[in-house]
Specification:
The protein is an alpha/beta fold. The chain has helices at residues 2-39, 50-63, 135-151, 175-182, 184-187, 241-254, 263-272, 282-289, 325-336, 358-371, 388-393, 422-439; strands at residues 71-74, 82-87, 96-101, 120-122, 125-127, 159-164, 191-194, 199-203, 206-216, 218-227, 231-232, 292-300, 306-307, 310-319, 341-346, 376-382, 398-400, 405-407, 419-421. Strands 1-2-6-3-7-17 form a 6-stranded mixed sheet. Strands 16-9-8-18 form a 4-stranded mixed sheet, with helices on both faces. The chain has a 4-stranded antiparallel sheet with strand order 12-14-10-15. A hairpin with a 7-residue loop joins strand 1 and strand 2 (82-87). Helix 1 packs across helix 3 (135-151) and helix 10 (358-371) packs across helix 12 (422-439).
Length: 442
């Protein structure tokens, strides 16, 4: 009798393990199918169609039983459609917003080793434009919504997923900004998880840490201009707008803003210092400590045989949260001197930090440690920019939590042969599922 019970129990365990393996295979196949569909819809600004991608996802969700009124495609401009889907909860807590964008930067077939708009799987990687930035995360959000729907999950708060247009820049309008100004009720939430920031960092196949983006630097651009009377190129003289601008730009290169740590960056440096063997990223960590300004565009003169009357350069600045446009402009003007005009090209927008509450960090750590025990989770400040910025400016706290790891030595977003490890993608599928359940508060 004892042997019979043991054999029966063992058989049940084998059956359960087999069922779990089949379920995992099914979930992975769904995630791969959604990724393939998104990559193979061109969503570049020049020739792509974001609306087509939004509609494709909407059709998939409706076929899985999502109510028509909970799956909304809004198209503020031709080919600039946005998808917002709402997974209904009990209403015990305010909604939770998950965010990703569907648009991608340009990709020319002649620059790539394969067609950038066909998903390729080889040597343990998925290749295709947007796999890393950020159709991979968008596909995981969709796959996990479907999984929760099939399981009959009932969260304590509505889960909103927004897949938007024009994050990468283009002819506009930016999807998040348009939704905030015109259909805020679709995306209004207690807080947002932005999958276009944060996430896992790895090097040489070793997982190092998991980051939660809690702040972004502000975006501010100036035009620096030198002007004089010009004249004939056969009679050169000391005054020359191009030389004067060039000298001013060297002073911009030497300009160093003071170190200013905030709650987020101080915690980042303190926690990272305790990670054995954590790589030092000098350029990145310098940008974490201070406001930076750098020349990005240059123009001058009007004819081969004429002394230039005007020379101009664009200087782009990334400003620490709490920094002001006036302070940056004053420092630039002082550096280049009174002979160079410094005028604002793109003004600085409000961009408060969102230091994560301890309770939120504890829940993220719980999910991370359920998959990778002991891995350090730390807050970071984004040195670039994401669609989290307008949400923060509108009073919605944003926490960047990408679902996948990325290799520090193999970041190909916006570049040739963009790719993600298939293992990181499928790990991200399970991580995103657990995170969505944990943060929705069942």
């Amino acid at each position: 009798m004892v042997h019979m019970v043991v054999r029966t129990t063992f058989g049940a365990l084998l059956l359960l393990a087999g069922q779990q393996a089949l379920a995992q295979d099914s979930q992975r196949e769904l995630a791969r199918t959604v990724l393939k569909e998104l990559v193979e819809i061109n969503t570049t600004d020049s020739s792509g169609d974001n609306t087509a991608a939004a509609q494709a996802v909407a059709r998939r969700l409706r076929s899985e039983g999502f109510a028509a009124e909970d799956v909304t495609v809004v198209v503020p401009a031709e080919k600039k459609g946005n998808l917002v889907v709402r997974f209904r909860g009990t209403g015990k807590a305010r909604p939770l917003l998950f965010l990703a964008h569907l648009d991608v930067v340009e990709a020319e077939r002649s620059d790539w080793s394969m067609d950038p708009f066909q998903l390729a799987e080889r040597d343990g990687y998925f290749y295709g434009r947007g796999t890393q930035d950020i159709k991979g995360d968008a596909a995981l959000l969709v796959a996990n919504l479907i999984r929760l729907k099939r399981e009959g999950f009932k969260p304590e708060r509505d889960i909103i997923v927004a897949l938007t247009a024009d994050e990468e820049g283009g002819r506009g309008p930016n999807g998040v900004e348009w939704l905030l100004h015109n259909r805020r009720e679709l995306i209004d939430a207690e807080f947002c998880v932005n999958t276009d920031a944060g996430g896992g960092q790895a090097q040489d196949g070793r997982r190092i840490l998991y980051s939660v983006q809690a702040a972004e630097k502000g975006y501010l651009s100036f035009v620096l201009a030198a002007k004089n009377a010009g004249g004939h190129s056969s009679l050169p003289r000391g005054e020359n707008a191009i030389y004067e601008l060039a000298a001013a730009l060297l002073r911009v290169k030497a300009l160093e803003f003071p170190v200013e740590l905030n709650e987020v960056t101080r915690s980042y440096f303190e926690k990272k210092a305790k990670i054995p063997g954590a790589p030092t990223e000098a350029v990145y960590e310098n940008a974490q400590r201070r406001t930076t300004c750098v020349a990005t565009m240059l123009s001058g003169g009007h004819a081969d045989n004429a002394l230039p009357q005007t020379a101009e350069a664009t200087v782009n600045c990334r400003v620490l949260p709490g920094g002001t446009q006036a302070d940056v402009q004053e420092r630039l003007q002082k550096a280049v001197g009174p002979g160079i005009e410094v005028r604002v090209k793109i003004p600085l927008q409000p961009n408060p930090a969102s230091p994560p509450p301890p309770a939120l960090m504890a829940r993220v750590e719980k999910v991370v440690h359920s998959m990778w025990p002991g891995l350090v989770v730390l807050p970071v400040m984004e040195t670039g920019g994401t669609d989290g910025k307008p949400l923060r400016g509108a009073g919605i706290p944003v926490y960047g939590i990408a679902q996948m790891f990325y290799d520090l030595d193999d970041i190909r977003a916006h570049g040739k042969d963009e790719r993600i490890r298939t293992a990181y993608y499928y790990d991200g599928l399970e991580f995103g599922y657990r995170l969505m359940k944990e943060l929705s508060g069942r």
